Amino acid sequence: MLTDTQKREPSAFATALRRFRSSRRMSQLDLALASDVSSRHVSFLESGRAQPSRDMVLQLGAALLLPLQARNGLLQAAGFTPAFPASPLDSESLSPFRAILNDMIARHAPYPAMLVDRHWTVLEANASARALLDALGGAGENNIVRMMTQSPQAEALVANYAEVLGELQSRMQMEALEAGDDPVFAELLGMLERACARFAPASAATPRRPLLPLIINSPAGALSFLSAIAHFGTTEDVTIRDLRLELLFPADDQTRAALAAL
Asked: What is the pLDDT of residues 197-252, one digit of tens each?
């Protein structure tokens, strides 16, 4: 039988479960229905009065639509080993996948291509993407959000800076919601919110475009790009599931000609 102290002090799992549920804006009843258990049982799990089985933790993680990394964290909080592998990107087991990524990035030249993690930190980039990042002030900084919000060069380099910031904020809000309770996402979103607040009145009055380009001021003139982002979902490896491959394509003939001349 649990003591009064144990009842008053929820376990690490109980605390994590409540945080994830709250970040999803789900009630205990919502989670109970999604995970096919009683709301009473969810309440007992969150108070520490009941301890979950390994299968129950996985069931709750699936019902909360948590990313694999967060499901591993929930398992560990409950005292279980992680269910999903998290292989280093340079590990032998991921070498076939890494070869595919390298080929995709190389074949995209002369157009920019970069590989980023779930927090939009650049892991790999081809030469044209690296040139853009260097111009953005990326020396010593590899996170896209930090570069866009903190680099003194960002606003002068990106011709439609306010629009791009707003789009990045919307994208990060969706990804932060998917990630659940993630302090790094919270920090990055705070940076974006403060940066976007400078342009809020003007941005609200600007008509929405059906396609939002990234327009770069360059010595060759304005270079306009459209972005395609690839996710890799046919795997249960945490590292691969957290990757995004961003490919920039010329949005007009002037940009296409300028890049072909490089």
From this structure: 988 765 545 565 567 899 999 988 899 999 999 988 767 888 898 899 999 999 99
- Rounded to the nearest 10 degrees, the angle between the axes of helix 12-23 and helix 39-47 is 120
Which strand (E) or helix (H) includes residue 216?
A: strand 214-218
Q: Does pTM top 0.85 for this prediction? A: no
According to DSSP, the β-strands at 122-125 and 244-250 are unpaired
Q: Which pair of tokens denotes residue 28?
A: 């205990």
Per-residue burial over 235-260, b if 16 or more Cβ lie within 10 Å, else e, is bebbbbbbbbbbbbbbbeeebbebbe
Query: Between vectors from CA 216 to CA 143 and to CA 224, what angle results, nearest 5°?
Result: 115
- Tell which CATH classification among 3.40.50.880, 3.40.50.2300, 3.40.50.40, 3.30.450.180 matches the domain 92-260: 3.30.450.180
Q: What are phi and psi of 172, to 5 degrees?
A: -65, -35
Domain spans, the chain: 4-77, 92-260
